[in-house]
Write a structure and sequence with these properties.
There is one protein chain. By secondary structure, the protein is of the alpha+beta class. It is 18% helix and 22% strand. The chain has one domain (36-202): Distorted Sandwich (Glucose Permease (Domain IIA)), CATH 2.70.70. It has four helices and twelve strands; from the N terminus they run E-E-E-E-E-H-H-E-E-E-E-E-H-E-E-H. The strands form three sheets. Strands 3, 5, 6, 7, 9, 11 and 12 form a seven-stranded antiparallel beta sheet that branches. The chain has a three-stranded antiparallel beta sheet with strand order 4-10-8, with no helix packed on it.
């Protein structure tokens, strides 16, 4: 028989979805990238969509970013997803997904999930979930249902899921991290200055 679906119970949380703060940068000594194209709502022409998270690339993150750089949980929570078993995107998928996106005029959720590659998701309660994408690997001991604390090692930076991982390996190594609030992402539909202000507060001191 097929195993029953397992959905971890969200942790108790005092987070305010309208006033998120006290999160940790997912890379050691990190900062927000200065370029708005790496922030939420930036256009993503290759998939006819917008960026839903923050990208930390080499030279843009105030930190060492390279293949295998550790990735840390941004806040306490429970692991929703941990892609220990992951099959790399294939050349055929790259072509098929590009054609599908062009025909539809947008990237559907399935396509977006493939493009995010190997992932870890952490549920922080109250509808707040963080996603860590394009990972090279998931840290040992990180599995669905595991409780994690802010700063716990959860994975390692890579470029999984990117078309370039097939067409130009080694050129798209970065961490893509999202903060999901309900059915959307933190900063959705806001102008760049407001998005940056939200994320500066997110990674600022916790509320007293």
């Amino acid at each position: 028989p097929e195993p029953l679906p397992f959905t971890p119970t969200p942790p108790p949380s005092t987070l305010d979805p309208d006033d998120l703060r006290g999160f940790l940068y997912p890379v050691e000594d990190g900062c927000l990238p200065g370029y708005d194209g790496l922030m939420p709502n930036a256009p993503r022409a290759y998939r006819n969509g917008v960026h839903e998270g923050v990208d930390w690339y080499p030279g843009s993150a105030c930190a060492v970013v390279e293949r295998g750089t550790p990735v840390y949980a941004m806040y306490d929570g429970v692991v929703l997803r941990a892609d220990h078993r992951y099959a790399d995107i294939t050349p055929e998928q790259v072509v098929e997904l590009a054609a599908k996106t062009q025909a539809q005029g947008y990237s559907d959720p399935e396509t977006l999930d493939i493009y995010r590659g190997r992932q870890v998701w952490v549920d922080h309660g109250r509808g707040i979930v963080t996603r860590y994408a394009h990972l090279e690997g998931v840290a040992p001991g990180i599995f669905q249902g595991r409780a994690v604390e802010r700063g716990d090692l959860i994975g390692f930076i890579g470029e999984s899921g990117t078309p370039e991982s097939v067409t130009a390996p080694g050129t798209e190594i970065h961490l893509h991290a999202e903060v999901r609030v309900g059915e959307s992402f933190l900063g959705a539909d806001l102008p760049p200055a407001e998005v940056r202000s939200l994320y500066e507060r997110l990674f600022g001191p916790p509320a007293e």
